[in-house]
Amino acid sequence: MYAHSIHNPDGVRFVGPLAPLAGELKGEFARLGYATSSATAQLQLAAHLSRWLQTEELGTKDLTGPVIERFLAARRRDYSNHYSLQALTALLAYLRRVESAPEPVAPEPCSGTGRLLARFGDYLSVERGLSAPVVQAYTRWVSPFVEEVVGAGQRPATHHTR
Residue 120 in contact with residue 140, Cβ under 8 Å? Predict the structure, then answer.
């Protein structure tokens, strides 16, 4: 049976490190108010992640930013939906809440430019749902502008008198 033909959350099969949590995940998506079709799609995504982790010989404790991005890159190659970090939000939140996955770690930028670019990147990924490579590209493109604006704000004002 193909995963695409399943329209019932109970029909999603799990293998790999997320298999012991399959029942709890079904309950979580129901608790969050997901419609049956949306819950099924989320469970299919979780089942795919679980299979991928098993193939990569990884566990849920390995779900760090770089590992998640590797999974999403692999998913984008074979799937036409649910391939962004936003698609994994509910699943990762649950795994982190039950301490099955590590909390995300973001390095703290030290400069004003770095902090502003980090906030812009957070906006793009969280609010706009863009993938990490797109966020990185957009951040790189606006970086010269941000450096100029932040730099201009840090230089002493020069007053021209006539």
Answer: no
